[in-house]
């Protein structure tokens, strides 16, 4: 699950009707000016001062900005106090500066652990932070290699990717409730599109009196909770996808696509410390859920409603089935129609920020690449019937 955060400002910017996209979908394609922005944060109702680049500017003066930590700010004109050019080119924080900023925000007891592509700020101790960092790096290498082999040479993230790891589930829940809302507070973790952070808690300490002392002990403890490790991998996949040019934050990325891809990657490989053999391995839990869904509850227009909108993902009673169907569709497309899937995803990646398509447009874009929906339904069903849970 990924979270967008409070969207009222996004809606306000969209209502301005004419939008000028300034930044690209990922990274820094060319030198961009940096601005010092002062504004009222609609979430905390406090004044914020950030150094940022402008991604979208509305004709009424509202902006979508990205600050040097990678956070997105949707600022309506009534809340924008000032926007002053700094005469400097925009640059993201380096790993050291990002670690210091996260520690200052989170407070005493938090330390930062750096890897080549991540900054992990935690109060869990070194062993668990090292394990998380190793897991993230292995996943990122395998993720990018998978898509290179599919003919899509995605970029490495342009800046260090932040992660926050809390020692206890209670700390995590308190933070998540304020940051992203109650729907994620009882999960093992989430990725926030707004802040670009993965937020987790220490699985190796859960139910224990004390944290793991070394990497080997962490690995032994987490091996007993593979489904929770899968959640970490799922959220880390979202973060990579939104930072390598595959998805664009605050743009129209269909949820079936984003969630289906994360589930395609979420089967973790815990038996080796190097490499990653399990992207695309059969996701037994999702397969079982999907088969139960098709046997008992699946409506005739299920594939169409999955593609057209996110209503089923927003309904807790229908969400598990929507996730399972998203996995089934992506698994079929990845295995049998990968070239077309890459073409479709490249079109999605190029969409402008703060513009959301209606259901008819989404369906037309999908069928323009993959063909008749009934044929896709039949082919996907045959694909799923061939799968065998091991």
Describe this structure in words.
- With 390 residues, the chain is an alpha+beta fold.
- It has 3 domains: 2-89, no CATH class; 95-246, Glutaredoxin; 284-386, no CATH class.
- The protein has helices at residues 8-14, 95-106, 126-149, 169-179, 215-222, 226-241, 255-265, 284-296, 302-308, 311-314, 319-336, 338-349, 359-370, 373-386, and strands at residues 2-3, 19-21, 33-40, 47-58, 63-67, 72-75, 80-89, 111-114, 118-122, 161-166, 189-192, 197-201.
- It has a 6-stranded mixed β-sheet with strand order 1-11-12-10-9-8, with helices on both faces.
- A hairpin with a 4-residue loop joins β5 and β6.
- α7 (255-265) crosses α11 and α11 packs across α12.
- The longest helix is centred in the middle third of the chain and has 24 residues, at 126-149.
- The radius of gyration is 21 Å and the shape is globular.
- The two termini are 26 Å apart.
- Residues 14-18 have low confidence and may be disordered.
Cα Rg: 21 Å
- Which structural class do the helices and strands define? alpha+beta
Q: What would you say the CATH architecture of the largest domain is?
A: 3-Layer(aba) Sandwich
User: What's the CATH topology label of the largest domain?
Assistant: Glutaredoxin
| Widest β-sheet, arrangement of strands | 1-11-12-10-9-8
Shape: globular
The CATH class of the largest domain is identified as: Alpha Beta
Number of strands: 12
